[in-house]
Design goal:
Blueprint (H helix, E strand, L loop, with lengths): L15 E5 L21 E5 L5 H6 L5 H13 L4 E4 L8 H5 L6 E2 L6 H7 L5 E6 L7 H6 L7 E5 L4 H8 L7 H13 L6 E6 L8 H8 L3 E2 L1 H12 L11
Parallel strand pairs: 1-2, 1-3, 3-4, 5-6, 5-7, 7-8
Helix pairs in contact: 7-8
């Protein structure tokens, strides 16, 4: 049997392409910006010239940069394209019209599905970087009624603000971990049924949050893993016949 391999690219084997904000903050395993987060190959493109303010204000003034870099990832043969920030949800629909592979702009897109699963007396909680930045417009872009979710932010974490907002170059992991857990704990006792980490910088602390609140915790990496498991399905071995 012939084994024919097609060319046309410079490099091969990347499953996921990740669009990164143009910053140099420290990133640790769990963060999509750290390649060690994934047990499969990923490739990156940096969104140079794309201002964070466009995400906050849901402006499409520089969407051409987003489309250009996403298509650059697509040319590298990836099967999925994602972003490193959960505020890209309002750009989801536009990107779908320019790409031939799936695009995920925000972990918030999981929430309508989770709401279908949870008991009616339970709610999904969102942990975001700053509740003043995550607007009703961001939620509605992901199909979420703002009145149906609980939201906590990292405003009280001096380490989060120093590193992520002010973009300092050192990270105290334990301080960041405490801030993430404290934000999650502020949602407890409110009929919480699941948590979605909108902010990708918090994914590294998923297990800490789950251990403290004992509820399922979802995030962008959850979505990526789910997608990849669908194109690399597990092999199930039937028990031998007796």
């Amino acid at each position: 049997m012939k084994n024919i391999v097609s060319g046309g690219q410079t490099t091969y084997g990347h499953l996921v392409g990740i669009l990164m904000s143009d910053s140099t903050i420290p990133r640790i395993p769990g963060d999509p910006g750290h390649a060690g987060t994934f047990p499969f190959p990923v490739v990156y493109e940096v969104l140079k010239g794309f201002p964070f303010e466009d995400l906050v204000n849901r402006k499409k003034d520089h969407i051409d940069i987003l489309i250009e870099q996403a298509k650059a990832l697509e040319k590298k043969g990836v099967s999925l394209i994602v972003t490193d920030c959960g505020l890209f949800g309002p750009f989801q629909e536009a990107l779908r019209h320019h790409l031939d592979v799936p695009f995920i702009g925000s972990a918030l897109d999981m929430i309508p599905l989770l709401q279908r699963f949870l008991p009616v007396n339970q709610q999904v909680g969102i942990i975001t970087g700053d509740t003043r930045i995550l607007t009703a417009g961001h939620l509605k872009a992901s199909g979420i009624d703002p009145e149906t979710v609980l939201i906590a932010g990292m405003e009280n974490s001096s380490e989060f603000n120093r590193v992520v907002i002010e973009r300092q170059q050192t990270l105290d992991v334990e301080k960041m971990r405490k801030g993430a857990v404290d934000a999650a704990l502020s949602l407890s006792g409110k009929g919480l049924g699941a948590i979605v980490l909108e902010c990708t910088n918090l994914i590294s602390f998923r297990r800490d949050i789950q251990n403290k609140l004992n509820v399922p915790v979802f995030d962008l990496v959850t979505m990526i893993d789910t997608f990849i498991s669908s194109i690399r399905p597990r092999n199930f071995h039937s028990p031998s016949m007796q």
